[in-house]
């Protein structure tokens, strides 16, 4: 039996959500002082780039942007095998920064835990805040996002996917039912 | 692409895609060694035993550091401290090690095929850290990573490997690896150090170093393995140095941007002059640095290999 898919956010809705998150980041941090964005590969890094552009449009400031690959920090090597390891690229000192960790979908929280471990190994940020486009619930760890594009109640068996075009722009968020 | 090898026994069994995946993974792991906290939790809870039945400083230390940087528990066993000196067979040693439930055994042995023997009989993953005159896959992979970093590509390059080809597992693994990635390989050494039929591996054979080095992008010098030489192989080290030693004048025959490699340890003044060994074209310490990253990649990839094989069935 085939899967059924529902589009829960289209391109315009994603754009509005990212703009709102950018405003919330600025309000929460009272500007861009010491703020830096770090996207989680892959998906979060593309969204972090969009947020950087939004912050630039609103404040006229280009905040530092980095990317973190969490493959080395996953806790499921035994069950999933050795996945391809990507590059972590954080071209600024992490120490003392207010890091906005960006991911596309927040699910169990294990990816975020791994990303925080990876960041802590690189330096000592002042704090880490979490921005996600979709929070679908089913947390297995005590992790709560600071900025959310859309809360989407889901069943554990469903999938939520953020699709990007060739220019890595987010075009839709789909909910897939088995 | 998935890596579905449980063991790393030699380059001969690998595809070009396998080699590229290992090099790409090593590039990512190299960043870990450049941080202030040089450790990731990737292999937490895994046990790696380095069993070295032959003397080694560089390779053993490199594997040990690689394991530790991935948070594995690493244990070293050398021939002098193993029960082999008390007459235990390799199979009995292996079975005893297996009973201690290691995940990976890194093995160096003077007999070609010893790691294969172990891999067929035991449950753990085996990584060949050099077996006799057969293969030294991790050395060839770190050589390829160094070449790729310095040249940007491997395909189309001309690589001259010079020295004791007969006894060199490094040369054999490099011929396989470079051929698979599309490089032209030249082998050069005195007739007594070139095994008959070596060209069947896919390399051109030269007896004059000047011809082998001319126009080369990479010049890889091999150590004269004095401990393995019979009296009939070399009249004298001085004569070898005169005819096959890499000097600044000979390097001028290679391409201007050619790099000089050596798997170490070097016999300065024998196969390579100090002026070349310390010159601007040498990448010998880059090879050592890349060795840790390549071995991290191998430990990581074989740790998932078994599961991927299972899931493919």
Automatic annotation (TrEMBL), chain A:
A motif (PRPP-binding) lies at residues 99-111. GO terms for biological process: regulation of DNA-templated transcription. It comes from the Bacteria. It catalyses: UMP + diphosphate = 5-phospho-alpha-D-ribose 1-diphosphate + uracil. GO terms for molecular function: uracil phosphoribosyltransferase activity. Pfam families: Pribosyltran. Its EC number is 2.4.2.9. The keyword Manganese does not apply. InterPro entries: PRTase-like, PRTase_dom, PyrR, PyrR_bifunctional. It is an enzyme of class 2 (transferase). SUPFAM superfamilies: PRTase-like. Keywords: Glycosyltransferase, Transcription, Transcription regulation, Transferase. Also displays a weak uracil phosphoribosyltransferase activity which is not physiologically significant. Belongs to the purine/pyrimidine phosphoribosyltransferase family. PyrR subfamily. NCBIfam families: PRK05205.1-1, PRK05205.1-5. This is Bifunctional protein PyrR. It comes from Syntrophotalea carbinolica (strain DSM 2380 / NBRC 103641 / GraBd1) (Pelobacter carbinolicus). The gene is pyrR.
